[in-house]
């Protein structure tokens, strides 16, 4: 069985590493934060004293870090500490330039690498039902797949290095825009005297149907499991949605792609987060649009 170093034991990394342990892999976890190391030990994940000890003689290094700068810096530190052939898998959501830089650093050390950002949130991480969007050479992807299967239920090879991040950025741009669209429709419906349930019953079986409506409905009632029924506790925090929308705008500017609705969604989430709402679920933006908050 492969030995895996898991760097970054935060909200996502801890439950993901726990699922690798459950699947029988020899895991050595490490996080810069003492509190995360303690929580990981508590959850039964073997924890190394430092990152050098974590990556010593492992077959695979998985990273689940906040941003691109953390991933590039962690990869820079790894070089020289790992042997050629060690498989590097980055599951963080990062900007395209950092993703490509990480692949370049891996290649310079003779290591196969995969960018494998996830969707599914902390619930999916705990349940082992994440979706992984992967970019990298076919051989690197094949080597990574069984490990990702221990943490997720859908593993998609999106093409060359960086394409996993590209897929994640594009998907979450759809999500941010569609949540605002659904929220605006409920706010307009309220003004027109339409009940939430009536609009839901029509739109969920008509051409307005989408995930933001039928799984994650931003008003309480129609979908009992949506965060709207729990005072918008996340779920998927608005600050993370803003992070992803900014990444999509950065990518669009870099690629000269026209994404006017993506830009508008980023601006709306920015004012929501600036108003101190970043820790709430991203579907709470309906309150700002309604004018009932902000
Ligand atoms: P988090 O902040 O809870 O965890 C990141 C951890 O990385 C922190 O504990 C930090 O101390 C640690 N860290 C930073 N640099 C390190 C280093 N060099 N070595 C070891 N540890 C280091 O963040 P999270 O919510 O777990 O998210 C992680 C990534 O997953 C982010 O890129 C995020 O955008 C993405 N993501 C998060 C969610 C979610 O719902 N939380 C969903 C999908 C994707």
UniProtKB/TrEMBL annotation:
<protein>
    <recommendedName>
        <fullName>3-hydroxyisobutyrate dehydrogenase</fullName>
        <ecNumber>1.1.1.31</ecNumber>
    </recommendedName>
</protein>
<keyword id="KW-0520">NAD</keyword>
<comment type="similarity">
    <text>Belongs to the HIBADH-related family.</text>
</comment>
<dbReference type="Pfam" id="PF14833">
    <property type="entry name" value="NAD_binding_11"/>
</dbReference>
<dbReference type="InterPro" id="IPR029154">
    <property type="entry name" value="HIBADH-like_NADP-bd"/>
</dbReference>
<dbReference type="InterPro" id="IPR036291">
    <property type="entry name" value="NAD(P)-bd_dom_sf"/>
</dbReference>
<dbReference type="GO" id="GO:0009083">
    <property type="term" value="P:branched-chain amino acid catabolic process"/>
</dbReference>
<keyword id="KW-0101">Branched-chain amino acid catabolism</keyword>
<dbReference type="GO" id="GO:0051287">
    <property type="term" value="F:NAD binding"/>
</dbReference>
<dbReference type="InterPro" id="IPR008927">
    <property type="entry name" value="6-PGluconate_DH-like_C_sf"/>
</dbReference>
<dbReference type="InterPro" id="IPR015815">
    <property type="entry name" value="HIBADH-related"/>
</dbReference>
<dbReference type="Pfam" id="PF03446">
    <property type="entry name" value="NAD_binding_2"/>
</dbReference>
<dbReference type="InterPro" id="IPR011548">
    <property type="entry name" value="HIBADH"/>
</dbReference>
<feature type="domain" description="6-phosphogluconate dehydrogenase NADP-binding">
    <location>
        <begin position="3"/>
        <end position="159"/>
    </location>
</feature>
<keyword id="KW-0560">Oxidoreductase</keyword>
<feature type="signal peptide">
    <location>
        <begin position="1"/>
        <end position="17"/>
    </location>
</feature>
<dbReference type="InterPro" id="IPR006115">
    <property type="entry name" value="6PGDH_NADP-bd"/>
</dbReference>
<feature type="active site">
    <location>
        <position position="168"/>
    </location>
</feature>
<comment type="pathway">
    <text>Amino-acid degradation; L-valine degradation.</text>
</comment>
<dbReference type="InterPro" id="IPR002204">
    <property type="entry name" value="3-OH-isobutyrate_DH-rel_CS"/>
</dbReference>
<keyword id="KW-0732">Signal</keyword>
<dbReference type="GO" id="GO:0008442">
    <property type="term" value="F:3-hydroxyisobutyrate dehydrogenase activity"/>
</dbReference>
<dbReference type="InterPro" id="IPR013328">
    <property type="entry name" value="6PGD_dom2"/>
</dbReference>
<dbReference type="GO" id="GO:0050661">
    <property type="term" value="F:NADP binding"/>
</dbReference>
<feature type="domain" description="3-hydroxyisobutyrate dehydrogenase-like NAD-binding">
    <location>
        <begin position="162"/>
        <end position="289"/>
    </location>
</feature>
